[in-house]
Design goal:
alpha/beta; globular; 325 residues; two-stranded antiparallel ribbon; 7-stranded parallel β-sheet
Length: 325
Amino acid sequence: MTLPTRTLGDLTVGAQGLGCMGMSQAYGTFDDTDESVATIHRALDLGVTLLDTANVYGNGANEELVGRAIAGRRDEVVLATKFGIVWKDGGQSARGDAAYVKRCCDESLARLGVDHIDLYYQHRVDPETPIEETWGALADLVAAGKIRYAGISEAGAATIRAAHAVHPVTALQSEWSLWTRDIEAEIAPTCGELGIGIVPFSPLGRGFLTGAITSTGQLVEGDMRNGLPRFSDENLAANLAIVETVRALAARKDVTPGQLALAWVQAKGEHVVPIPGTKRRSYLEQNVEAVGLELTPEDVAALDAVGERVAGARYPESLQRTVGR
């Protein structure tokens, strides 16, 4: 199949993108780079044009992997990467001063092996740097031809408005799924008002909504989910009940729970382009099939109700402080 397209601001992309982070960090092992490259190639064959990475994924290794995978196929790709997360005193912080933004862009261009980035995101908002300075630097990068469009990730509504007043925000990237719906009250409506696209990451609840995870014992050492409250032993049983409800609803449509969860995100608007992450072609193909799944208003309402029963916070407190700024 070839995917239909959707628009993020003025940027046209396939209706579903591919998150590449897990090819280099976060979820289990990531030593099969040949399969990761093959997955990217298969994504392009299927019309998945939006490839998402960041300078911090694998400490630059993910950008290098994506760069190798798209060599010779650059014109098929809408390439997105990010700057702004820094590690300080063993914890996650953010930086957004102009000199840093421009240096990060040059470094990412080199690792990716390209002469421009299609969509360059501010990964996290730096509370110490005025948003006007950060977005002034992004406007300079657009003028220099180093990036085509600018986006922002995990920002609050007021910050999105302030950034958009300096230079158009093409897309907001934030977590959005059946069990993470923080942006729905204020942030998503702000994006709708301003004509900003939304790129939900982890639309499968970091893999949980597929039904593949039934025990914390399945998570290997180094898997970031070991540190997320929703995956703790005390919350897992309650959250498994949510998956069983999704599984039952999916069975009625003869689709997988993951496909139903993706269809729910996609139904939120034509300006919404989820980026489920995978490093395997088989999972990629399952995800892409969800693009053709249409939900009735009754389906959406039933799934909306599912998400109201989530047990546990999205992040530990230290990380939660870095989002929604």
